[in-house]
Sequence to fold (342 residues):
Amino acid sequence: MSSSESNVDPQEPRENEYTVGWICALQEEYEVACKMLDRRFKGPRMAHPNEDNTYEFGQISDHYVVIGCLPFGDYGTNSAAAVAKDMVRSFPKLRFALLVGIGGGAPTRKDDIRLGDVVVGAGKGVHGGVIQLDAVKRYKSVDGSLSTQLWRHLNGPPNVLLGALPKIQERYNDPDEVDKIAQNMERMSNRPEFERPSDDRLYRASYPHQGGSDCENCDAEELVTRVERAVTHRVVKVHYGTIGSSNSLMKMVDERELYANDPDLRILCFEMEAAGLVNTVPCLVIRGICDYADSHKNDDWHNYAALAAAAYAKELLDNLRAEKVTEQPGWGSVLDKGTLMR
Ligand SMILES: [Zn+2]
Fold:
């Protein structure tokens, strides 16, 4: 456990009082998640001590939260599902999970996605919020253009979370309201490596990376010209829509363009864990944009993007009433149905 003994609160909740699971995959995602806790607890003695995952326990607003992180270097949809499975076993009374971390953005003419933005997987249409990319069938239309068809739909986020989004959006849009997401991000202000990087370069989709670690060989002429964003009362821009999930790292810009511009799919962001989770446990996916899912991608924005996503997740929990959450059935009932036994 990473929390030092001196931080441990003497009033520890019991195992079945934890209601929210917060799942992350990377070290930086885990660190910012822990920073969003208002109080930390030592945590209950594990019911299953041979679990590989790392847990942290604490409180955000009135919610008791278990943060679970995948084993080091182990990511992808299958491992995310494995973490969820272990969490369900140890904490059957958790009501839902937040999958919080980084993802690759898919900017289009319609969706002005930029590095450091946050994408929340809450689709308005039939797609729920997460699309499993392996379940998209591509075919040539009569006019020769490439079209897509989805043969498997994943579950949408739980209603208790969807119900909180209008309130959050209202507060976000109101200039008289304090920028809570920015305030949450301040919690990392003593860690310079989490500061916002200055460069946000989007290359034309047709132009591949020319080698080197930081696009030093790439031609600035090939950058997409974008109008600088107007300064608003909000530090982080939040988008709501569809997230594409796949077990392989999305680095194919052609695919990005296809999925993002498809009017039916309209994918805003790509990541690697969600498809393994959303049909397993009630779950909402929150992603900070760290690259553009192309060959130019690097790690420069990882920390900041992870922080932005975690800060949004805390804002969500701060706006969610604990009674609403405890009304929900524990996700252990999902396990009983056998969906986790595959
Ligand atoms: Zn490059």
Confidence is low (pLDDT under 50) at residues 1-6, 338-342.
